[in-house]
Amino acid sequence: MDSSQYDGVYQPLLYPPADGTVPLSPSTESSNGELERVLSDVETPFFHRLREATMIESKLLFKLAAPAVIVYMIGNLELAAASLGNTGIQISAYGLMLGMGSAVETLCGQAFGGRKYEMLGIYLQRSTVLLTLTGLLLTLIYVFSKPILLFLGESPEIASAASIFVYGLIPQIFAYAVNFPIQKFLQAQSIVAPSAYISTATLFVHLLLSWLAVYKLGMGLLGASLVLSLSWWIIVVAQFVYIVTSERCRQTWRGFSVQAFSGLPSFFKLSAASAVMLCLETWYFQILVLLAGLLENPELALDSLSIW
């Protein structure tokens, strides 16, 4: 009896056939059969057959090539490192800063509703000062990300690569400190379109800069994360220029004020309460990523989570 069969039930071959060929998967055989049927149907117009054949061939090539493209463009280790650094470390800063910045939304909304327009600019600056101070503390986590990840039991190879990626995200922390208060400042005035346009334009710039940094300049993970930080700063600068120059913000932005440094303790209490609510929502996935790095094959597990 052929070893590929057992009690009349077909079993997949576990070794190459004697002639050296590799058996095709059922999906590949099906695609080839469908392609042959389309090409041999002489009654169908030529261009119609060509279009159908192209679609079938493209689907087959995509299934075969897409995984290889991802691996060759990023690499298993780099993708796992970016996943661990971005989700395991960076998202803690993102959740904390976004939560603290969300407190501005309540205060700005109240001030705008009460027609105390000048207070919106004060709240914006006060929140930026507070989040910048918080960012200085978060920088320590980024700087010591490698020993922290090793302490949590992550693979030394992945932890080392992830720390390189995280180092390039340090400027992003301070972009968060300005961006989130600006967003809430604008949203309280129902100004949302400019931020959308700026973010969309920055996306294309980000793709171009990422390609240049990673593939043309060979900067690898550090280049990718530095470009990510730069893109956030482009958004911040563009939004701030809009605030300073726009007629819609003339009443709410009166320039820089020393009042931004007053009342920080009470402002911190409100911001901290807001941050806790959001952090509890985001940290659970961060824990899942850290746990995935402890599995038997951490690169595969982290790659899967990153793509998912």
UniProtKB/TrEMBL annotation:
Molecular function (GO) terms for this protein are:
antiporter activity; xenobiotic transmembrane transporter activity
Which Pfam family name is an example for this entry? MatE
Presence of keyword Membrane = yes
Keywords from the UniProt entry: Membrane, Transmembrane, Transmembrane helix
For this protein, the record's InterPro entries field holds:
MATE_fam
Q: Where are the transmembrane segments?
A: 60-82, 88-108, 129-152, 158-179, 191-214, 220-245
Top-level lineage group: Eukaryota
Would you name any one GO CC term? membrane
- What NCBIfam families does this protein map onto? matE
Similarity remark: Belongs to the multi antimicrobial extrusion (MATE) (TC 2.A.66.1) family.
> What is this protein's name?
BnaCnng07010D protein
- In its UniProt entry, the species of origin is given as Brassica napus
Q: What is the lineage of its organism?
A: Eukaryota, Viridiplantae, Streptophyta, Embryophyta, Tracheophyta
Task: Identify the coding gene.
Answer: BnaCnng07010D
